[in-house]
Every structure is written in C-alpha cells, then in structure tokens.
What we know:
Layout: E1 2-7, H1 11-22, E2 27-33, H2 36-45, E3 50-54, H3 62-72, E4 78-82, H4 86-95, E5 100-103, H5 108-119, H6 127-138, H7 151-161, H8 166-173, H9 177-191, H10 196-205
Helix pairs in contact: 2-3, 7-9, 7-10, 8-9
InterPro entries: CheY-like_superfamily, NreC/VraR/RcsB-like_REC, Sig_transdc_resp-reg_C-effctor, Sig_transdc_resp-reg_receiver, Tscrpt_reg_LuxR_C, WalR-like
GO molecular function: DNA binding
Keywords: DNA-binding, Phosphoprotein, Transcription, Transcription regulation
Amino acid sequence: MIRILIADDHGIFREGLKQVIAGTANMTVAGEAADGLEVLGKIREHDYDLVILDISLPGRSGLEILAEVKALRPKLPILVLSMYPEEQYAMRALKSGASGYLTKGSSFQELVEALQKIAMGKKYVSAAMAEVLASRLASDTGRPPHERLSDREFQVMRMIATGATPKRIADELMVGIKTINTYRVRILQKMEMKCNADLTRYAIEHRLM
C-alpha cells in the first residue's frame, strides 16, 4: 500500500484528493498538512511513500518546502500539484527534486496515472510539458531572463509584477521591507530591466502571472 501525505492549505481540495485516492486500490492517505511547517513536521515524525505538495502554501514557498523535504528524505517522491501553468513552475520544481508536476486543472485519471508512475520511481510530466522540455534541449538560445532568478527571486518578481507593494510582499513572505527592496534591485539587475513596469510587461508576455 502506497502511503501518501497530502500538503495543501485548502481543506475542500484535500477532501477531493482523498476521495480520488480512496478509489485507487493500492494507495491510501496517511497524512495531511495545511502549511510548510506542518509538512516538515509530518515528514520528520512519519514515513510516507509519496507526497502531493501544493506549490502555494501559507508563509513559505512550496519550492522552499520541496527543497527541505528532499534534504530530509532525498529518496521520497514528490508530486507538485499547482494552480499555476506548467511553464511557470514545472521546470523549477523538477530542478528542485520533484518527481512530477501537475496542474490542478488536470483530470482525476491523469492524477492517478502520475501518482502510480512516481510511486514506481519514475518521473511524470504532461505531454505538453514534455514538448517544452524537448524544445529547450534542442534550442541553442540562452535561457529566458526569468530563469536566471532564484526561486525566491522569481516569487518576488511575480508579486511585484502584479502591483503588490513592498510592504504587502514583505508581510506575505514574513520578511522585512528592506529585504524585499534588495530582492527587487537584484531581480532588475539579473533581468536587465529598469523598473517595475518592465517586470509587469515581461510577466504578461511570458504568461508568468
């Protein structure tokens, strides 16, 4: 029996996942978590065969939690389940150690297929994402500017692009405003841009919002 930990801050969504998994013969939900700290606590206290991890957890980025979970349990398979399109976060999730990435708009059948494949020690990406990966491998062009950013810088960049103020970003990420301003300067430098409007335009053009 494959023991699964579900990490998502929406209780209704967790219930939906539990129903899907309950209908799958060789899987069971062995734990639930609503935020990053709870995820790490559960991982330290219990043994799981697989984790379903939402990328948008309260307080800390799901990518940060992903990296910490892999540090604690390097061989633990993790399926990142997100509301964000694959082109925004899939590559980052896979590079951080995820075994697969799936959007929340995917069918239940695809979810079960992904879980079963990952439980066997394999990787899972959708057909659309596989095409993107193949295209990038075949391309001789450099990486797009946003891929030069760290995971936290990318998170801050997206928030700036939506028009969020430094105070709002700082409050949401639980850091100081000075830290956010430092991130902003670094982001603009790495992306070779001059102002927030440039970031917003870029984010819209590349479907990062």
